[in-house]
Amino acid sequence: MATEEVIFLGAGASAADGAPIQNALFKDYFKSRAYNDETNTVLSTFFMDFFGIDTNDDLTGINFPTVEEVLGILELALNRNESFRKYPSTPQAPKVQNTRESVIILMARILRDKLQAGRPIHDSLVSRLIHESRISKTAFVSLNYDILIDNALSDVHDKFDLDYGIPFANFSRKNDWHRPRPNRAVKLFKLHGSLNWLYCPTCISLMITPKDKSKVSQYADTPIPCVSCQTNMIPIIIPPTFFKVMSNFFLQQIWREAENTLIAARRIIFCGYSFPDADVHIKYLLKRIELNTGTCPDIYIFNSHHGKGDEVKEQEKQRYERFFSDKTKIYYLDKSFEDFCNNGIP
Ligand SMILES: [Zn+2]
After folding, report:
1. Domains, the chain, with CATH or none
2. How far is the CA of 186 from the centre of ligand 1 (A)?
3. Nearest Cα to 25, choosing from 57, 70, 56?
4. Could you report the per-residue pLDDT of 41-99, keeping only the tens digit for each?
5. How many alpha carbons fall within 13 Å on the CB side of residue 39?
6. What is the pLDDT of residues 249-294, one digit of tens each?
7. How far is the CA of 45 from the centre of ligand 1 (A)?
8. What is the DSSP letter of 143?
9. What is the DSSP letter of 154?
10. Ligand 1 center to residue 202 CA distance, Å?
11. Distance between CA 286 and CA 308 in Å, rounded?
């Protein structure tokens, strides 16, 4: 069935179900003191060397760098084939690569630990869409690496097949994930990657982690080697503003599929997404939709949350309004993601 509505999930949507906001992720991880292995040692040394943070200290007043800053610096060095002092990035001593992998493992660990309690708000969204018979006309775009919406959709009694817009190597294996069946497929485009996709950089193949909940983030504890070449697989995670975003074959395909779906949509509902200036790739995608269809879809924004100031709301509203050409189609509602999940558009 053709997509009528696209639900766009930003970091605020995951935060509503308890995900640490990006700026708190590193601090939450080190404060938990839950890990004491080689990956943890690599991370502790890295935060000392690069940001002067002793992770063994009391971290209460410490200001950690953002995910964007940390991954951005490492990605840029890799992209430019450059090293840092004590951090080579050669095939013989791939320390920048290893550090980047450790940072991704950190993210997988803290999100797994923080989100164990479930995701009642995402669940209520899926329940409402099913109840209103809208789910087959709805597609999702997520900027989050966690798998809250993935699990909320795939846990409904095998009713739906998640269609990420890309093929996974598991599709050709027995007793594993199968290709999404057209009459049950729900589109979910994760534009910045996902913690349940494992990429083999040698084979350029992508696996989806097992359905079994206890094994989804197994790689966060022990590396999972590629079955074909034994290279350790690592999730695809792209820091939002990083320019290399389009260079991964699978991500290119996802962005293209997302564009094709957005073109057909009559409504886009932004949830917990502040529309920051830095997200140039997202803005490029949206502007392409607007120009190439010759019409602006209705835009609804559910960004409010407890304690959010009026000035912040007003600035956000202005960011949305100045960007889209038809201002009459923008509905910046003073409502939260949770309001949208429970009650829909008023
Ligand atoms: Zn491989």
Report:
1. 1-19+118-346 (3.40.50.1220), 22-114 (no CATH)
2. 28
3. 70
4. 999 999 999 999 999 999 999 999 998 899 989 988 988 899 999 999 998 999 999 99
5. 20
6. 888 999 999 999 999 999 999 999 999 988 888 999 999 999 998 8
7. 29
8. -
9. H
10. 5
11. 26
- Ligand 1 being an ion, which residues bring their Cβ within 5 A of it? 200, 202-203, 226, 228-229, 231
Q: How far is 242 from 69, CA to CA, in rounded Å?
A: 10
Distance of alpha carbon 23 from alpha carbon 85, whole angstroms? 26
Residue 35, classed as helix, strand or coil, is coil
C-alpha of residue 204 to centroid of ligand 1, in Å: 7
Q: Is the dihedral of CA 34, 38, 41, 43 positive or negative?
A: negative
Amino acid (one-letter) located at 344? G
C-alpha of residue 226 to centroid of ligand 1, in Å: 5
Q: What backbone torsions phi and psi does residue 236 show, to the nearest 5 degrees?
A: -85, 115
What pTM value is reported for the model? 0.93
H, E, C per residue of 257-301: HHHHHHHHCCEEEEECCCCCCCCHHHHHHHHHHHHHHCCCCEEEE
With beta carbons less than 8 A apart as the criterion, state whether 279 and 11 touch.
no
Pairing of the two strands 330-333 and 205-208: unpaired
pLDDT digits (tens, 9 = 90+) for 157-167: 678 899 999 99
Nearest CA-CA partner of 197 in 210, 187, 184 = 210
